[in-house]
Amino acid sequence: ICKSSQSASKSAREGLMTEDMIRNIVIVGGGSAGWMTAAALANAVGRSIALTVIESDEIGTVGVGEATIPPIRSFNTELGISETEFVAATQGSFKLGIEFVGWGGADARYFHPFGTYGADFDRVPLHHYWLRERL
Q1: Rounded to an integer, what distance in angstroms lies between the CA atom of residue 26 and that of residue 55?
Q2: How many angstroms separate the CA atoms of 11 and 18, rounded?
Q3: Can you tell me the distance from the alpha carbon of 128 to that of 24, in angstroms, rounded to the nearest whole number?
Q4: Strand locations in the chain, DSSP E?
Q5: What does the DSSP 8-state code read for residue 115?
Q6: How far apart are CA 96 and CA 66, in angstroms?
Q7: Would the pLDDT of 65 be above 70?
Q8: b/e for 14-52, b at 16 or more Cβ within 10 A?
Q9: Is residue 28 left, alpha or beta, with left meaning phi > 0 and alpha meaning psi from -120 to 50?
Q10: How far apart, in whole angstroms, are the C-alpha atoms of residue 68 and residue 32?
Q11: Which of 49, 14, 42 is nearest to 6 (CA)?
Q12: Which of 39, 66, 94, 102 matches a 20 to 30 Å C-alpha distance to 112?
């Protein structure tokens, strides 16, 4: 770490502004990624840095069935967002996994679960039996 970085970090912790400190951050691109980045940065830096999100009105919403995965719970908790209020406000639903159809071949299918998949039999996870039968 260079000396100026150390002094800038110390100044930031003490609430002082120096000439070499970042004062503005611009996030180019909105959508889920842009706005979640802005929320995370705002949570991390508070009001000490100005944040700007630039997004195009010409791009519009991409309707591809966008989904979030389980770590969104940790992200929202860090931001102080109630899961109940979040799901109600977004009219969201809970998803157990994603099925990939046509990947690796026209008739190929793959289901990627978000957590434990199937019940254990004889203390062995279900997917071991499934793999044994399939292979």
Answers
A1: 11
A2: 7
A3: 52
A4: 24-28, 50-54, 97-101, 109-113
A5: S
A6: 14
A7: no
A8: eeeeeeeeeeeeebeebeeeeebbbbeeeeeeeeeeeee
A9: beta
A10: 10
A11: 14
A12: 39
How are beta strands 109-113 and 97-101 bridged, if at all? antiparallel
The per-residue b/e assignment along 106-127, b for 16 or more CB within 10 angstroms, e otherwise, is: eeeeeeeeeeeeeeeeeeeeee
Report the C-alpha gap between 10 and 128 in whole angstroms: 53
Both tokens of 48, joined, read 């000490």
Whether the model pTM is above 0.85: no
**What is the predicted pLDDT for the residue at 63?**
60
Residue whose token pair is 């039968």: 133
Ramachandran category for residue 83: left, alpha or beta (phi over 0 → left; psi -120 to 50 → alpha): alpha
Mean pLDDT score, 1-8: 42
Name residue 114's amino acid: F
- Return the active site residues: 95
Beta bridge pairs of residue 25: 51
Per-residue tokens: 125: 């996870």
Give the C-alpha separation, 135 to 131, whole Å: 6
Enter the tokens of residue 16. Answer: 């002082």
